[in-house]
Amino acid sequence: MRIERFDPARDEGAARALHQIHVENTPVDDPGFPPKSPGVFRGYLAQGWTAEPHEAWLASVAGDAVGGYILELPDRENRDRAAVTAMVPPGRRRAGLGTGLLRHAAARVRDAGRSTLTGFTRDGSAGDGFARTAGAVADLAEIVRKLDVGEIPSGLLAELRASTKAAAAGYALMNWASHYPGAYLDQVARLNEAMGDAPHGPGEEEQSWNAARVRAVEVRAVAQGLRQYSVAVRDEGTGELAGLTELSVDQAEPEWGHQQLTVVTRAHRGHRLGLLLKVAMLELLAEREPQLRWIITGNAASNAHMITINDALGYRVLSQWTFWRLPVGSIL
Length: 332
Ligand SMILES: CC(C)(COP(=O)(O)OP(=O)(O)OC[C@H]1O[C@@H](n2cnc3c(N)ncnc32)[C@H](O)[C@@H]1OP(=O)(O)O)[C@@H](O)C(=O)NCCC(=O)NCCS
Prior knowledge:
The structure is a single chain. It is built from nine helices and twelve strands. It has two domains: 151 residues, Gcn5-related N-acetyltransferase (GNAT) (Aminopeptidase, 3-Layer(aba) Sandwich), CATH 3.40.630.30; 161 residues, Gcn5-related N-acetyltransferase (GNAT) (Aminopeptidase), CATH 3.40.630. Helix 6 packs across helix 7 and helix 8 packs across helix 9. 33% of the residues lie in helices and 31% in strands. It has a twelve-stranded mixed sheet, sandwiched between helices. The protein is of the alpha+beta class. The site of coenzyme A has 22 residues, from helix 1, strand 4, helix 3, strand 5 and helix 4.
């Protein structure tokens, strides 16, 4: 097996070959979830979701693409680790290719001076068995939920919004599409940092954000063909942003919405702002994206507050996932 690195921005053939494997794998490994479109996939190969450096590698045997992997090498925090997503198409599995890819990735990570590989697999999938065989340690359980937008009972959003009225008095809603106004970038960076309060695995450092990182994520999303929506709540007394929810719609798959972060800063919790934000987002989407049929969201299984809100909106469990950690030295 030859394993070669490629530049997703320049090597269209290699990016297409890896995307094709992703398309073949998704119904097998993640049934009920749409494969990423080519545009979203290529942007992900280059930068992931939160603007960290990524490497894309394609494996071939006798000129046929037989797998590959994506390596995320965060350069601001978690610089002792790297996240790997190895992929082998269904027709080529159980022949040792995945193990070869994992060893290759581990050597790459060791050479980059890092000690730990991390990964993410759906419970009960081939990746789950693969991670266990590799000796990975389970860090955090994540549950993915799906909302059938057409099944939201009429009147439910109005009723939920009314239920927030007293607790959320003194807060005003705002929304933006695709770009934050420059005046809010620093505050949006702080809200991203407040996500550090969400459950995360042992030893995982919280992300540090600034205005440039917020802009880098926006640029990547637009280049991927994503329409991004943001709803925020502002404390009318101080003018400070107290909470934020973000959601993206791929223009190539416009029936699907992908929930991104939802966060309320510590000082403003307990005012039903999380629920208000998500209700307001659904109202905004009804106006701007009337074709939307499903929304996908993922939360740590232990994130009781967020899950209560999602349950109230009608989200149903689609799948359960595990975040894994594996010392590089145990593979090489
Ligand atoms: C995970 C994946 C890369 C494995 O590729 P592969 O080429 O089949 O892996 P290998 O042949 O090297 O398997 C090594 C061992 O992992 C375990 N394993 C692999 N697939 C398994 C499955 N479906 N069920 C249980 N164990 C499994 C087995 O112990 C296997 O050894 P064996 O075949 O001798 O029993 C492939 O299934 C895939 O692309 N899955 C989707 C993406 C993913 O989940 N990637 C993992 C995240 S990094």
